[in-house]
Design a protein that fits this description.
With 483 residues, this protein is an alpha/beta fold. It folds into three domains: 113 residues, Fumarate Reductase Iron-sulfur Protein, Chain B, domain 2, CATH 1.10.1060.10; 177 residues, FAD/NAD(P)-binding domain (3-Layer(bba) Sandwich), CATH 3.50.50; 150 residues, 3-Layer(bba) Sandwich (FAD/NAD(P)-binding domain), CATH 3.50.50. The chain is 32% helix and 16% strand. It is built from 17 helices and 16 strands. A five-stranded parallel beta sheet has the order 3-2-1-4-16. A five-stranded parallel beta sheet has the order 6-14-7-8-9. Strands 10, 11, 12 and 13 form a four-stranded antiparallel beta sheet that branches. Helix 3 crosses helix 6, helix 4 packs across helix 6 and helix 11 packs across helix 12. It is globular, with a radius of gyration of 23 Å. It starts with 21 loop residues before the first helix and ends with a helix. The relative contact order is 0.13.
């Protein structure tokens, strides 16, 4: 008689994933996490209890049938596992690598009540990578619906929106300002976390569905949104441009040579392949001693890129403690393993330069945590008389981003909030102008890839309803209602 699987019969610990040695990986841009073997994946899949009322699905912003795809892996039906993933997520190989599963689906896993939660993200990555290596994903037959949609931006929100619209037979064109498709997946996330070949093959699957991508096209400059609708014949438009304008502190010395925004530094390094100089003629201009201000995932990307680019010393400066760091625990752990220096409870007050206008140091002050501020976190307070100088050649700001105003300025009647982010109906994603929708960072401010995917899918559903077509299912909403 077969043993009934329960919390008492499954392995209590998560299946570890092999990684590059910290000393070796600090000198290359190869992927750090090496992925599961088939044996690893089968062991971890066997830890899933395949709950009748799974709480994990409600924790996924795109509503993936998590027990379904894990159960298919356990049965060694990898094609089925991949098809389940692709039904709700057009970027499973990407999300399996960069999605913060530990705060979304995995935190709700029932196994996690008495043991370690199931490694949903690692299994998602395995299924997507296995599919790409062993079989050609099927392209569904799609009947044309006689409608046209323009998507502005080829980042996660735009890709998710385009995929759902294309499945419904809509003629979709993505307009991308840069010379490569992928948005933040291409310019913002380093190779050692997300190899660009992964992004390219996901984009290729989108093209197979009939989605057209126009590169080097800045909407708001070359065409406005009203022109797209009135002159180009698009029935609906989705704005998924992200939030790409960098934030600075406004302290003295920010105009010195050697001061970068994270966007500039990561774009030069990743999108323009600066890490492969001189093979790619993209000088990054980074010094030997680098300081990065901030402690989110982007800051971790910056410090780890700087290390791999040859910096002799890399220091992360953050005005709160490690506990308040918004970075994923895994990324913070990897940075520590690689030898990054951390200056917690420290805030820059001035960037110092020489007579030629180049950075030579950064004056900082020590902080203590006071009462909670508007964000709910304890507010950092300066400690008078604790100023000190960190000798540096380069300073990189990783303090988040602001909305780029180009779309709003070129679209009369498009309503934005006081920070310049586009206001939308939370259920449909429609803006103040009928037929124009938006989602992702341009609505919420900087967030995660998976949240942008969820926003793109919600907007696609609203767009289909607006055009009188069948709606795109958004399982996350149904799952949340049942939870």
């Amino acid at each position: 008689m077969a043993t009934v699987k329960s919390i008492h019969t499954i392995p209590k610990g998560r299946t570890p994933m092999a990684e590059q040695d910290p000393q070796a990986r600090g000198k290359n841009f190869d992927e750090v996490a090496l992925g599961y073997t088939l044996a690893d994946a089968l062991r971890e899949a066997d830890r899933c209890l395949e709950c009748k009322k799974p709480r994990c699905i409600a924790g996924c912003p795109v509503g993936i049938d998590i027990p379904g795809f894990i159960g298919a892996i356990a049965q060694q039906d990898m094609r089925k596992a991949y098809e389940i993933l692709r039904r709700d997520n057009p970027l499973p190989a990407v999300c399996g690598r960069v999605c913060p599963q530990e705060t979304q689906c995995e935190i709700r896993c029932i196994v996690g009540v008495k043991a370690e939660p199931v490694c949903v993200g690692r299994l998602e990555r395995f299924a997507a990578d296995y599919a790409m290596a062993h079989f050609d994903p099927e392209t569904p037959a799609i009947a044309p619906a006689g409608k046209k949609a323009a998507i502005i931006g080829s980042g996660p929100a735009g890709v998710a929106c385009a995929a759902d619209l294309a499945r419904a037979g809509v003629d979709v064109t993505i307009f991308e300002a840069l010379h490569m498709a992928g948005g933040v997946l291409k310019y913002g996330i380093p190779e050692f976390r997300l190899p660009k070949v992964i992004v390219d093959r996901e984009i290729e699957l989108l093209k197979r569905m009939g989605v057209k991508i126009e590169l080097n096209t800045v909407i708001g400059k070359l065409f406005t949104i009203p022109q797209l609708m009135q002159e180009k014949g698009f029935d609906v438009v989705f704005i998924g441009t992200g939030a790409g304008s960098p934030k600075f502190q406004g302290i003295p010395g920010e105009n010195l040579n050697g001061v970068f925004s994270a966007n500039e530094f990561l774009t030069r390094t990743n999108l323009m392949r600066g890490f492969r100089f001189p093979e790619y003629d993209t000088p990054v201009g980074m010094g030997r001693r680098v300081a990065v201000i901030g402690a989110g995932n982007t800051a971790m990307d910056c410090v780890r890129c700087a290390l791999r680019m040859g910096a002799e010393k890399v220091t992360l400066v953050y005005r709160r403690t490690q506990k308040e760091s918004p970075a994923r625990a895994e990324e913070l752990h990897h940075a520590m393993e690689e030898g990054i220096e951390f200056q917690w409870l420290t805030n820059p007050v001035k960037i110092l330069g020489n007579a030629e206008g180049w950075v030579i140091g950064m004056e900082c002050i020590r902080m203590v945590l006071g009462e909670p501020d508007a964000s709910g976190r304890r507010a950092p307070v300066e400690q008078p008389g604790t100023n000190f100088v960190i000798p540096v050649d380069s300073v990189i700001y990783a303090l988040g981003t602001r909305a780029n105003p180009i779309i709003a300025r070129s679209t009369p009647g498009l309503k934005t909030n006081q920070w310049g982010y586009i206001e939308v109906d939370e259920q449909t994603g429609m803006t103040s102008i009928p037929g124009i929708f938006a989602g992702g960072d341009i609505v919420t401010g900087a967030a995660t890839v998976i949240l942008a995917l969820g926003a793109g899918r919600r907007a696609a559903k609203g767009m289909l309803e607006y055009m009188g077509l069948r709606t795109a299912a958004v399982p996350a909403e149904a799952a949340a209602a049942e939870a």
